Fold:
Amino acid sequence: MSRVYNFSAGPAALPLEVLETIRDDIPDWQGTGMSVMEISHRSKEFVDLAARCETNLRTLLAIPDDYSVIWTQGGATLQMAMVPWNLAAPDDAADYVVTGSWGRKALGEAQKACRANLAADASDRNFTYIPEPSMWQLSDNAAYLHITANETIAGVEFHELPDSEVPIVSDMSSTILSRPIDVSRYGAIYAGAQKNIGPAGITLAIVRNDLLEPKRDNLPHLMMWKSYAESDSMTNTPPTFAWYVADLVLQHLLAIGGLEAMAEVNQRKSGKLYAAIDASDFYGNPVDKSCRSWMNVPFILVDPDLDGKFLDESAEAGLTNLKGHRSVGGMRASIYNAVPEEAVDALIDFMADFERRYG
Ligand SMILES: *Cc1c(COP(=O)(O)O)cnc(C)c1O
Structure:
């Protein structure tokens, strides 16, 4: 078997232990004589899986009892629409802090549903910083304040949550489970699974119970958080295979020490990669040091003519998916939970060697 070091931004690497369990489970899951894909979501085995998955998530993130855990389809992108349709009446204001492309997309969805306000916009410096909270142009009586905890493309992450008088809603797709968070400071959190939770196809929302009642009538069932909360996320047939893998990932995280342990590794992984980039005149990262992402590390080669060579040679060395997003160029190493520290060490070694040969 040969596995590469996979720096994909998403869908992204999964823990090898989880992949091995899946392989072993496929023909006969838990003595049912069926794979998990072939069994009813209403079966006892699957209902137990869903319950365990929620319990483990609640343990990992210390989710308070007055929050609901909801699993949907449609990705983080559907949540970008569900947020305003559930939390705001058509005349309500909602504030958006846009620190990257995903936040801009979320704002666009909200503009269709309510009076969405661009409270702050970091595009003036190519999404390389987080505007000072004291400068944000907040609305009076906004229904909520939306942020993107980690902007996956430019690699900008909130390391401190601002204070807010209104519920904070955070897109945590590319940072959830990377470290402990204080869920009680949020009104709602959402995340597509395919970065740190599991495979694409399932999406997590954590919603404070007093925010579950939609602020408008006639929403389709599948657009209402409340429907999911009331049906244990079985409003319709859920993405059972993706849910099963998410359950395995959460069990794995608990087994390796939970989110404190994960945070320590993640901080070390990103810290050494940024240190290597900063120590060299050959590579660069333009993001303010105070908000550099632990999960997505974009970097450029000062001479972009070497980009092609870097990508070819790194792939040959077993370091894959390092090409930066087309809107930023250069490289990006996504170093999610399941990317082992050895992968980061191998990347740093490769970068130093490449610089010696071409610098
Ligand atoms: C990947 C990502 C998305 C898109 O998620 P989908 O599940 O594809 O809809 C949204 N927001 C952020 C921050 C992401 O990293």
Q: What stands out?
A: Residues 10, 75-77, 102, 148, 152, 171, 173-174, 192, 195 surround pyridoxal-5'-phosphate (CB under 6 Å). Residues 48 and 332 are 39 Å apart (CA to CA).
